[in-house]
Amino acid sequence: MSNLVRRAPFRLTHLLTDNEAAFTDRLNRPQGQPSGKHPVDQLCADQGIAHRLIPPRQPQTNGLVERFNGRISEVLASVHLRNREELEATLERYRRLYNGQIPQKNLGARTPVEVLKAYYESNPDRFRRKPHNPPSPDI
C-alpha cells in the first residue's frame, strides 16, 4: 500500500476496507480497537489516513471494489499464466485499460482517469501532482 500512497496523484485522506486480516486486526481485539501493530493500520497512522471498515458481512458497502475484483477474476479465468511475472503483467495491462480506456456507467460514461482529471481542475489543492493518462495497455 505504501506504493499506492506514493503513486497516487492525490492526497489520500480516507481508506475504506473490509474486515479481513489482510487489512486490520480490529475484529480480534476488545471493542474493535486496532492494536496499532497491523501494517495497514500503521501506514494509515503514519500518513494521516483515516482507516475505516465496512460493516461485517455487508460486501455491498464496498460494491465498486467487489465488482472490480469480479472483473479481474473474469480476466484471469480467460488466460493461461505460466508464472508470477505473467500474472503481474496481465494485472497491470488490465489496470491501465480499466482506468484509461473503459468508460464506466457509474462515472457518466467516462473513464476513471477522465473523472480524476476533471476533479483536479476544480480541486487542485487536493492533489500532489496533476493526473495524466496511463500509457496504453499494449506498452
Automatic annotation (TrEMBL):
Q: Which residues form the Integrase catalytic domain?
A: 1-120
Q: Which domain of life is it from?
A: Bacteria
Q: Which residues cross the membrane?
A: none
Supply the name of the protein: Integrase core domain-containing protein
Q: Which organism is it from?
A: Thiohalorhabdus methylotrophus
